[in-house]
């Protein structure tokens, strides 16, 4: 069964799109990531124009993130105050990112830039996360666990001014790195169509020393509003959000996220990080191969910033 996408200007198999949305929603709920780092490359692999894939992928992230965040809110694993501070930086970053996105599209370098950015970020972050996860699992197997680092333990981040107390997370931390992290994620959301959870979750755990039990829900909370804002701005500025594609992805993503949260609660932290690292690496390698291997059709036609 096929459906026509008016903005992407092509017909797709609805069941494949539903499968993509459900899978990404499942991963969103399990890992606390928006899933945009996966759905955008998947759409590109399925020949959706990158301009449409980025903007519409961000829209799908909204639905799956809402579903997962509600579940975490009910379980008391969401820090609203911390999420709000992240959101301040995220909205500012998203605004800057949309401007960069429009500029890259005007000069005709958007597709290449998106692919290169995905390869660099996913490969480096995936490798670092996998290395740390393997070490953690080896320590657990040998009954030699890493000494527990208390929330707020000193490093350079905790010596910064403008500190705030986050009672839910039980930390006393400067707002500067939190806003900065949110800003960076906002820029990536606009340019890459990602929620940014694959960067935000490790950064909150390892850099800011935020307790793992509130990281996932808080990450999803911030992702909801930044991706929703990005979607609206992309639709108004670049006219690149395909509502038909977004609706299909959203329906499937919401259902998948509920099951992902349940599975994620049954796995240990190092297991979750290892699985996420492998997934991130796989997507990065696949994109790198696509940049290196000579395509079957060497020539393409670009109309209005969209490649065919």
What descriptive keywords fit this protein?
two-stranded antiparallel sheet; mainly alpha; 69% helix; globular; two-stranded antiparallel ribbon
Topology:
Blueprint: E1 2-5, E2 10-13, H1 14-31, H2 36-45, H3 50-74, H4 80-106, H5 110-141, E3 163-166, E4 171-174, H6 175-192, H7 197-207, H8 212-237, H9 243-264, H10 269-292, E5 302-303, E6 306-307
Antiparallel strand pairs: 1-2, 3-4, 5-6
Helix pairs in contact: 1-2, 1-3, 1-9, 2-3, 3-8, 3-9, 4-6, 4-8, 5-10, 6-8, 7-8
Written overview of the protein:
With 308 residues, this protein is mostly helical. The protein has one domain. The chain is 69% helix and 6% strand. The strands form three sheets. It has a two-stranded antiparallel ribbon with strand order 1-2. Strand 1 and strand 2 (10-13) form a beta hairpin. Residues 301-308 have low confidence and may be disordered.
The shape is globular
Structural class: mainly alpha
The end-to-end span amounts to 23 Å
Question: Nearest-angstrom radius of gyration?
Answer: 19 Å
How are the strands of the largest sheet arranged? 1-2
Provide a quick synopsis of the model.
It is built from ten helices and six strands, in the order ββαααααββαααααββ.
